[in-house]
Amino acid sequence: MKKSVTLMLAVGVAFLFAVTCIYAGTKAEDTFKMETKEYAKHTKGLVEFTHKKHIDTHKVTCGQCHHDDKGKALELKEGDDVQKCVTCHKETGKAPEGEKLAKKEKIVKYHKEALHANCIDCHKESNKKAGDPKGKGPAPTSCNDCHPKAAK
């Protein structure tokens, strides 16, 4: 009897540990700095992104940013496992000057191209919906609007 209680207790503790580890690995932080360790050096200050503000204030859904390898929006909910952009957009930085790739090909290949296209295009579209035909407005669209000055 004592062995079965000990075994059940051990299984219960192992289960709780596993569930905690799985949840901890998939929970998206409300606010975080968009630091990508694959970059040898960041040339601008790190963007501080807030899921909460985008979801609550701007009514953005997860799938408006997170997509599959075909570009199709993912149907996600809080706690779902999400890969970092650099998992698929493996080349860090931007496309080199003179590289003969279409914009869409650059976005697929280069991490920085993918991030900027995703964020800036959405911000410009949001500003147009808010009444500015040029896409300028409350949603940031320039480098300094999002990237704080890098610490020296």
In short:
With 152 residues, the protein is mainly alpha-helical. It contains five helices and two strands; from the N terminus they run αββαααα. It has a two-stranded antiparallel ribbon with strand order 1-2.
Explain this structure:
This protein has five helices and two strands, in the order H-E-E-H-H-H-H. With 152 residues, it is mostly helical. The chain is globular. It has helices spanning 2-26, 51-56, 103-109, 111-129, 143-146, and strands at residues 31-33, 48-50. The protein has a single domain, classed as Cytochrome C3, CATH 3.90.10. A two-stranded antiparallel ribbon has the order 1-2.
Q: How would the blueprint of this fold be written?
A:
Blueprint: H1 2-26, E1 31-33, E2 48-50, H2 51-56, H3 103-109, H4 111-129, H5 143-146
Antiparallel strand pairs: 1-2
Helix pairs in contact: 3-4
Descriptive tags:
single chain, Cytochrome C3, 152 residues, mainly alpha, 5 helices, two-stranded antiparallel ribbon
Q: What is the count of DSSP helices, taking H or I runs of 4+ residues?
A: 5
Trace the largest sheet across and list its strands: 1-2
Question: Could you say how many structural domains there are in total?
Answer: 1
Q: How many beta strands in the DSSP annotation?
A: 2
Main pleated sheet: 2 strands, antiparallel
**Unreliable residue runs:** 10-25
DSSP helix fraction: 40-55%
Estimated structural class: mainly alpha
- Overall geometry comes to globular
Beta-strand content:
under 5%
Gyration radius from CA atoms, angstroms: 20 Å
User: In CATH, what is the class?
Assistant: Alpha Beta
Average residue pLDDT: 81
Any guess at the CATH architecture?
A: Alpha-Beta Complex
How far apart are the termini? Answer: 65 Å
Give, in order, the helices and strands: HEEHHHH
